[in-house]
Amino acid sequence: MDSSQGSTIAGFVDNASIQRKQSSFDGVPVYVKELIAGGFAGALSKTAVAPLERVKILWQQTRTPGFHSLGVYQSLNKLVKREGFQGLYKGNGAGVIRIVPYAALHFMTYERYKSWILNNYPMLGSGPCIDLLAGSAAGGTSVLCTYPLDLARTKLAYQVVDTRGGIKDGMRGAQPTHNGIKGVLTSVYKEGGARGLYRGAGPTLTGILPYAGLKFYMYEKLKTYLPEEHQKSIVMRLSCGALAGLFGQTLTYPLDVVKRQMQVGSLQNATHENVRYKNTIDGLRTIVRNQGWRQLFHGVSINYIRIVPSAAISFTTYDMMKSWLGIPPPQQQKSRSVSAA
């Protein structure tokens, strides 16, 4: 599909959706539409890359026997042999349950923060820098609201069970600790209370603030360089989303490694000391000292493979859902509120 065909398809969807939204979504509050658009975009992108996300989590753990020396294809093939096709999506249920409210809140709060900045601080202008500020604030908000679900998803994805002979990776010689989201959250709460549900939240927040901000900034910045005739091109939107995701992820990936190791610390093999980092800086220093600096980027290659379709699908789907639901730009929302007053 070339860019002109993508533009034609996007224009057709946008034009046709205007008529539908007048009958189906007329009168629905803008923030509700933003929640719907963000949640749908997040679920679609998360499911599309779930197998790669599973392998990435296993690669990030130095104590997962038989995985961290394999390539992408070999890891996926081994998971299928051990757990069947459904093994590729192990933990994805928790991931989708987390990503729907996370993405919904992320995109909605991004739009709300952006509108608030534009309305109250007009001297800052309306360029991509506003997207950097609004995206960072939205990332922090969505993480705080949904982090326990991310913890559950990681713990479920980390467990590898050989359904043929009972040989386990990740927790050798023991039955799986958790059987579902509820089991994970209950067990973690009993072990560490409410604080345990947010283990690893420090590096997550440290990473999401610049990542979310840079991601939105780069996406909106790249779109400003597109010729007007390609503004609605699906191919161009996918390309901008992919580049934005790659740029933001490269700068913040080491923090993701620290977060994952903190989250699964209690699941390490009994022959190894549990991972207990005091904070993000301590985690970074300890990993470099004990595992080498390369461990901070272990799995980054599959993250690149994963983030391209994930960010591209997420941004493009959200943009198209905004058009389908009739969500106006923040500048138009401001003018409408002024007119109504």
Distance between the termini: 46 Å
Question: Biggest sheet, strands in spatial order?
Answer: 1-2
Overall average residue pLDDT: 77
Radius of gyration: 21 Å
Reported by name, the CATH topology is Mitochondrial carrier fold
Membrane topology: Multi-pass membrane protein
Main location: membrane
GO cellular component, one term: membrane
Subcellular location: Membrane
How would you describe what is shown here?
- This protein has 341 residues and is mostly helical.
- The chain has a single domain (29-330), classed as Alpha/alpha barrel (Mitochondrial carrier fold).
- Helix content is 71%, strand content 1%.
- The chain has helices at 3-24, 30-48, 50-60, 72-83, 92-120, 128-158, 181-196, 201-224, 234-263, 280-291, 300-325, 330-340, and strands at 160-161, 168-169.
- The chain has a two-stranded antiparallel ribbon.
- Mean pLDDT is 77; it is low at 16-21, 169-176, 267-274 and 335-341.
- Keywords: Membrane, Repeat, Transmembrane, Transport.
- It is a multi-pass membrane protein.
- InterPro entries: MCP (IPR002067), MCP_dom_sf (IPR023395), MCP_transmembrane (IPR018108).
- Belongs to the mitochondrial carrier (TC 2.A.29) family.
Strand and helix map with partners:
Layout: H1 3-24, H2 30-48, H3 50-60, H4 72-83, H5 92-120, H6 128-158, E1 160-161, E2 168-169, H7 181-196, H8 201-224, H9 234-263, H10 280-291, H11 300-325, H12 330-340
Antiparallel strand pairs: 1-2
Helix pairs in contact: 1-11, 2-5, 2-11, 3-11, 5-6, 5-12, 6-7, 6-8, 8-9, 9-10, 9-11
Membrane topology: Multi-pass membrane protein
Solcar repeats: 29-116, 126-225, 232-324
Keywords: Membrane, Repeat, Transmembrane, Transport
